[in-house]
């Protein structure tokens, strides 16, 4: 009887610690909702390669801003420390070059074109003016080889030059959020996540997969929002986190208005692709 009671108490303790670990959100502050709500965020800009508009291109971002959408984009560091707007670390898929972003210089990158078009690989400083004074940006930082501090520092320094730009910073890497929490607490920060056990390309060890899938770094990083993979929306962690702690939620990637409607009705934000979100 005592043994069973101890097991019950241990179970309750573990459940409580699990729930506490995903604590997130500091509540609306600094005009969070007024500046960023009411927008849908175009995944890597409004792109359609069949129309000659590649992802993460200046043309895709201009279309997003001109049509009243916010935009999500990805930022990496080149070998010489420039801020490159590119999703993949490998340049093969988008440019055909057999190299990685972090291994080449800005000069090399500036000579590459995207997906067989004339669109050049953009740098972050090329994109920001398109959105300044217009629609907001959702900026994903993609560290590589331990450069999370340098990447985050350089991005935030550049963003300070655009006081009329509304933006948020997100990352899968909790170290980015920790740096922001310590050095730029005024920046709205978000934790990207998914079910890492379903991701066949994931090389993380089991404990880290479990922690990140279950948003267990939130207790340290205190994200203002969580951006979770839409396909993994039935996972326990995002639903518990949202219900108990109440941070703003984003869902990525939403591919139809039909998928979007219940999310929008729940006041979530969507990162969309392939349709004209309403």
Q: Can you walk through the features of this model?
A:
This protein has 278 residues and is an alpha/beta fold. It has helices at 2-21, 32-36, 58-66, 92-95, 106-109, 124-131, 148-159, 174-183, 206-213, 218-221, 236-245, 257-265; strands spanning 41-43, 70-77, 83-85, 137-141, 167-171, 189-193, 225-229, 248-254, 269-272. An 8-stranded parallel barrel has the order 1-2-4-5-6-7-8-9, surrounded by 5 helices. The longest helix is centred in the first third of the chain and has 20 residues, at 2-21. Mean pLDDT is 91; it is low at 7-13.
Please name the defining characteristics of this protein.
alpha/beta; TIM Barrel; eight-stranded parallel barrel
CATH class: Alpha Beta
The CATH topology comes to TIM Barrel
Instruction: Name the average pLDDT.
Output: 91
Question: Overall 3D geometry?
Answer: globular
Strand order of the largest sheet: 1-2-4-5-6-7-8-9
Largest β sheet strand count, sense and barrel closure: 8 strands, parallel, barrel
The radius of gyration over CA amounts to: 19 Å
The helix/strand order is HHEHEEHHHEHEHEHHEHEHE
- Classified in CATH, the superfamily is Phosphatidylinositol (PI) phosphodiesterase
Please estimate the helix content: 25-40%
N- to C-terminal distance? 58 Å
In total, the number of domains comes to 1
- Amount of beta strand: 15-25%
List strands and helices in order, with pairings.
Elements: H1 2-21, H2 32-36, E1 41-43, H3 58-66, E2 70-77, E3 83-85, H4 92-95, H5 106-109, H6 124-131, E4 137-141, H7 148-159, E5 167-171, H8 174-183, E6 189-193, H9 206-213, H10 218-221, E7 225-229, H11 236-245, E8 248-254, H12 257-265, E9 269-272
Parallel strand pairs: 1-2, 1-9, 2-4, 4-5, 5-6, 6-7, 7-8, 8-9
Antiparallel strand pairs: 2-3
Helix pairs in contact: 3-6, 7-8
